[in-house]
């Protein structure tokens, strides 16, 4: 097989940032994806409808290359969120979901949640209105080894949330472990998970052996090969509980190649091509469309996209740009540890 036609995908987790980055990043996403859930962890986090609406307007200004593109906005979950503002914003399609960052767990998360019970009154409203909860599932505790933080979050926090709000729609985001895969597989239909391209492709040895690779550093951190294999298996599971969220999270090169570097991988521009290749390498190409274009829409009760993407396998490996340059910022483009032959050929509108 050297050609595939796929329903146009959605990115259920992306960071657009602000200013000149925003301007350059939005059209890169809207070229490949029809919808994207936009993360709220800006330097001043998005916590109300006024901020979400302003941010959404800016995004729509820069996505003119795709008139169908829909940015799905999120609030940054915090105990001070006004529930009346939240309900109104949800009913008017200003906000789509809320993002839970355990305080301090990752980039711009210092205003996140310290104790889960402090947001229970908001989760109650979200459950009643079926507003999705998106979770960065890691405990932030210096006593907990970084490689165990996802497992501990599930055991100590997520189970508590589910027990208290069994009707709440939850996405455990960017899962990284076999433990998380097993947990999602045995959970109710309300609980699903997103997976990033980089966690499907790499393990921690790729990042740490034979000299350290700061551009592979992300959170949750890459895990063992057995975890990566479990993620790949999950992405092609017929139960459709797993879907793509790129977690494309750009940082300027200077903030990555330094003694105290930021977490984040920028993969938007080659995400679909890399996924086609890894599914192909594992004889799973027939499962790709469900993972990138269908399972997420089902979870979020949205219709499938109407346009299609045509991918063609080239004879020679594709050369992707090394960096995306924005004024004086340089963002390293994610580079997998294998050749990529799948290229986006064209887009087709369905009537
Ligand atoms: O690697 C990451 N980068 N993980 C996150 O959770 C946040 C993100 C960012 O915003 O840079
Ligand atoms: Zn993220």
Summary keywords:
single chain, TIM Barrel, three-stranded antiparallel β-sheet, 12 helices, globular, binds (4S)-2,6-dioxohexahydropyrimidine-4-carboxylic acid, binds zinc ion
Description:
The chain contains twelve helices and 13 strands. Helix 1 (19-32) packs across helix 2. It has a single domain, classed as Metal-dependent hydrolases (TIM Barrel), CATH 3.20.20. The chain is globular and about 55 Å long. The strands form three sheets. Strands 2-3-4-5-6-7-8-9 form an eight-stranded parallel β-sheet. A three-stranded antiparallel β-sheet has the order 1-10-13, covered by helices on one side. It has a two-stranded antiparallel sheet with strand order 11-12. The protein has 351 residues and is α/β, with parallel strands linked by helices. Strand 2 (11-14), helix 1 (19-32) and strand 3 form a beta-alpha-beta unit. The two termini are 26 Å apart. Zinc ion binds at residues 13, 15, 39, 247, 249. (4S)-2,6-dioxohexahydropyrimidine-4-carboxylic acid binds at residues 15, 41, 106-107, 136, 218-219, 249, 262-264.
């Amino acid at each position: 097989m050297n050609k595939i036609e796929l329903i146009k995908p959605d990115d259920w987790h992306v960071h657009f940032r602000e200013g000149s980055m925003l301007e350059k990043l939005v059209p890169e996403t809207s070229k490949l994806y029809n919808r994207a859930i936009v993360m709220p962890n800006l330097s001043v986090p998005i916590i109300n409808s006024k901020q979400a609406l302003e941010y959404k307007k800016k995004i729509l200004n820069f996505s003119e290359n795709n008139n169908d593109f829909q940015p799905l906005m999120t609030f940054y979950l915090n105990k001070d969120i006004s529930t009346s503002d939240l309900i109104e914003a949800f009913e008017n399609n200003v906000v789509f979901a809320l993002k839970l960052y355990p305080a301090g767990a990752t980039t711009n998360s210092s205003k996140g949640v310290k104790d889960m019970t402090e947001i229970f009154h908001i989760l109650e409203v979200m459950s009643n209105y079926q507003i999705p909860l998106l979770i960065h599932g890691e405990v932030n505790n210096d006593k907990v080894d970084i490689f165990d933080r996802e497992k501990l979050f599930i055991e100590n926090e997520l189970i508590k949330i589910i027990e208290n709000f069994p009707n709440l729609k939850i996405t455990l985001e960017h899962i990284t472990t076999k433990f998380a895969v097993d947990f999602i597989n045995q959970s109710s239909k309300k609980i699903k998970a997103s997976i990033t391209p980089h966690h499907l492709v790499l393990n921690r040895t790729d990042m740490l052996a034979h000299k350290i690779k700061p551009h592979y550093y992300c959170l949750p951190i890459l895990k063992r090969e057995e975890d990566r294999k479990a993620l790949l298996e999950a992405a092609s599971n017929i139960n459709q509980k797993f879907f793509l969220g790129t977690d494309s999270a750009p940082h300027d090169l200077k903030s990555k190649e330094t003694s105290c570097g930021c977490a984040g991988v920028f993969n938007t521009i080659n995400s679909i091509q890399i996924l086609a290749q890894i599914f192909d390498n594992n004889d799973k190409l027939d499962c790709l469309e469900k993972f990138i274009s269908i399972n997420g829409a089902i979870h979020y009760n949205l219709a499938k996209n109407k346009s299609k993407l045509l991918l063609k396998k080239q004879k020679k490996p594709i050369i992707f740009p090394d960096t995306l340059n924005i004024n004086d910022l340089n963002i390293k483009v994610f580079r997998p540890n294998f050749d990529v032959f799948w290229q986006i050929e064209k887009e087709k509108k369905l009537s």
